[in-house]
Design goal:
Elements lengths: L5 H19 L1 H21 L9 H6 L1 E7 L2 H12 L4 E7 L9 E7 L3 H6 L3 E7 L9 H12 L6 H13 L4 H14 L7 E2 H10 L1 H7 L8 E4 L4 H10 L21 E6 L4 E6 L5 E6 L4 E6 L5 H16 L5 H15 L4 H6 L5 E6 L2 E6 L7 H10 L18 H8 L6 H10 L6
Parallel strand pairs: 1-4, 5-8
Antiparallel strand pairs: 1-6, 2-3, 3-4, 7-10, 8-9, 11-12
Helix pairs in contact: 1-2, 1-8, 2-11, 4-7, 4-16, 7-8, 9-10, 12-13
The structure holds 2-oxoadipic acid (OOG) and nickel (II) ion.
């Protein structure tokens, strides 16, 4: 009998989420249209070179989403749902330590093998709240928050059963695949259930992210990001169409040298109508800004050495505390010219980026391994730019020592080190002897 394989579930799920998001967040549809236009133009202009970092079919279907969860148990459950689709946890991000601190730690669920990434690279940045962190939450609020979170169910048992079966049997029958996709998509839709106004506002006074996660009885995809081949062109075009983007394109600057890692930009969440339950039991309509839009461009995966150069360059520009996006961009270009080789070959020769070897027209050429992950500073910036208020933190308190090992324990699975995955991918196509 026909089976729907994990990668087919993943591709179908990405399409289902994209359709749902497009129906509910119209600005996303505009973003997709503009991204598509820009990608067509780059392919027409650059030909085969436009597809060096992924076929146009892959790039057109490529999305990442983001979700925020409340507890280690919820994280373990979502790991089962993603495992059904061949998505595994990669990397540990501590956003509590960012310039604009957010009370979460995060990982990304994604396919890890090159052939699976080529089939469909769908990835989900997944954050979990840290209620025990005294820099954000009092002991009293922690206790009430944990009680609230323990009493909700994000993923119905039928979804978890199907997911476990899909993982164990590497796929599902077409009927079960359909049920799995219905339940999985529904689990990430915005819920119509009324929001408890007093509870939401109490958490919101500590952190908008805490309210978004722990103030409601469900989760939702908060953005879905298409990939674009020229993010500067996209930014200009969205702005010209009247969409207010955040000030900066985050990550590396536009410059004449090689594209590395990840560049991202976003537009702020629109106010969406929601029902609220008031303390007297009555229900009213208000609005919340919880779903926003983002777009990304991907470049070469850097080695640990390359990443150290990147982190130092970002820190150097940040330390200048420049007041405008244009000044930051200009400064970053200068720092980049000083810090990075001007060519891809230079990056490879210096051991700063991972290369795959491919035979083109009888010659062996080096091609970058694509960066498939996220950047903590950019992620924290994306959180911050889309919240109505920043977290109020008490820096005199000790933080909770949460690390990659803690995350692996919470997920109940191995959390891959992204550098190991890139190194393995590069080693799979060694230079000819
Ligand atoms: C996640 C923000 C991180 C990215 O692209 O860096 C992210 C969130 O807002 O929940 O998606
Ligand atoms: Ni994102």
């Amino acid at each position: 009998m026909d089976r729907t394989e994990p990668w087919q579930l993943r591709a179908a799920f990405a399409r289902r989420l994209s359709d749902m998001y497009g129906r509910e967040v119209p600005a996303y549809t505009t973003l997709l249209r503009v991204a598509h236009e820009v990608n067509q133009e780059v392919v027409a202009r650059d030909g085969a070179a436009a597809e060096r970092l992924g076929s146009i079919a892959r790039v057109t279907a490529e999305r990442h989403g983001a979700i925020r969860l409340g507890t280690p148990a919820e994280l373990a459950q979502v790991a089962t749902v993603f495992a059904a689709m061949g998505m595994e946890p990669v990397g540990f991000y501590d956003l509590r330590e960012a310039a604009s601190p957010v009370p979460v730690v995060s990982t990304a669920f994604r396919p890890v093998r090159a052939d699976e990434l080529a089939r469909n690279p769908f990835r989900v940045f997944t954050s979990v709240l840290t209620p025990g962190d005294r820099r954000f939450f009092t002991a009293d609020l922690q206790a009430r928050l944990e009680t609230f979170l323990a009493g909700r169910e994000l993923f119905p048992p039928a979804l978890l059963d199907l997911a476990a079966r899909a993982e164990a049997e590497s796929g599902l029958s077409p009927d079960d695949a359909g049920r799995f996709l219905d339940l999985a998509t529904a689990a990430f839709e915005l819920s119509p259930e009324p929001v408890d106004r007093a509870w939401y506002d109490e958490l919101g006074a500590v952190s908008a992210v805490a309210a978004d996660i722990g103030g409601v009885r469900s989760t939702h995809v908060n953005h879905l990001t298409p990939r674009v081949l020229d993010i500067d062109a996209l930014y200009a075009r969205m702005t010209a169409r009247g969409t207010t983007m955040i000030d900066d394109i985050q990550g590396p600057p536009a410059w004449e040298g090689p594209d590395v890692l990840l560049r991202q930009t976003s537009f702020r969440a629109l106010a969406e109508p929601r029902s609220f339950r008031l303390p007297d039991g009555s229900v009213t309509t208000g609005d919340l800004r919880v779903r926003f839009g983002e777009v990304e461009a991907r470049g070469a995966a850097l080695t640990r050495e390359g990443r150290a150069v990147y982190d130092a360059a970002v820190a150097e520009v940040a330390a200048m505390r420049l007041p405008t996006a244009a000044a930051r961009q200009e400064a970053a270009q200068q720092v980049w010219r000083r810090s990075f080789p001007a060519t891809e070959e230079g990056l490879f020769d210096a051991g700063l980026a991972y290369a795959e070897h491919r035979v083109v027209d009888g010659r062996t050429v080096r091609v970058p391994v694509v960066y498939e992950d996220f950047l903590p500073q950019s992620a924290a910036g994306i959180f911050a730019s889309n919240l109505s208020a920043d977290a109020t933190t008490d820096r005199s308190e000790e933080g909770l020592g949460l690390d990659a090992a803690w995350l692996a324990g919470a997920v109940g699975r191995e959390v891959h080190d992204p550098f190991d995955l890139y190194a393995a991918q590069a080693a799979a196509s060694p230079a000819p002897a």
